[in-house]
Amino acid sequence: MLHQCKFNLPVYWIDGNHEDFELFVHHTEVTEVHANCFYVPRGTVMELDGKTIGFMGGAGSIDKFLRARYNMHWSSLENITDEQFARMDNVESVDVLITHTPPQSVIDKKFDQSPRAFAFFGAPADWFDPNAHLIESLWARLNYPSMYCGHMHRVVADRSCRILDVCEVDYID
């Protein structure tokens, strides 16, 4: 539980796709939600340790179909909105891009996109995460900066994109 955690260094975090979005959807600026723990809204760009870092949380849930079948919570707020995405329209470059979902090209190259893989999650054979296409376009527009993301629950590295596992701790150089 967050209230039991103590952070010696500042922790900056973005949302993903399995959050209680109602808790922080109203935050439009970086917000300290616990001592030394800062929520970073989608589309935020900030300077940290001399680096310009762009943040874009959000991702589509392939398991939303299973959750619906078992009456488990799902929220459309998990998806990146046009307004959130537009917050980075005037950004010309960043040193590092932090996202939840990886870009579509990395997903296509490193993950099984077969109907069989989607069926495991109860998703239709033609399912795709539209957020991955948005992240792909942002990454390309920013000229492929170093990128760190999560969402896929395993470690993958491709070009300048590193997908972190859910339990992995990684440090940006």
Model regions low in confidence, pLDDT < 50 over at least 5 residues? none
Which structural class fits the helix and strand makeup? alpha/beta
Q: What fraction, in percent, of the residue positions are helical?
A: 10-25%
Number of strands: 9
Strand order of the largest sheet: 4-5-6-7-9-8
Biggest sheet character? 6 strands, mixed
Q: Distance between the terminal alpha carbons, to the nearest Å?
A: 29 Å
What would you call the shape? globular
pLDDT average, as an integer? 88
Which range does the strand content fall in? 15-25%
Oligomer: single chain
- Counting H and I runs of at least 4 residues, what is the number of helices? 5
Strand/helix succession: EEEEEHHEHHHEEE
Cα gyration radius (Å):
16 Å
- The number of domains is 1
Please describe the topology of this protein.
Layout: E1 11-13, E2 31-34, E3 37-39, E4 44-48, E5 51-56, H1 64-69, H2 82-86, E6 96-99, H3 104-110, H4 115-120, H5 130-141, E7 146-149, E8 156-158, E9 161-163
Parallel strand pairs: 1-3, 5-6, 6-7, 7-9
Antiparallel strand pairs: 2-3, 4-5, 8-9
Structure report:
There is one protein chain. With 173 residues, the chain is α/β, with parallel strands linked by helices. It has one domain. Helices cover 21% and strands 20% of the residues. The protein is built from five helices and nine strands, in the order βββββααβαααβββ. The chain has helices spanning 64-69, 82-86, 104-110, 115-120, 130-141; strands spanning 11-13, 31-34, 37-39, 44-48, 51-56, 96-99, 146-149, 156-158, 161-163. The two termini are 29 Å apart.
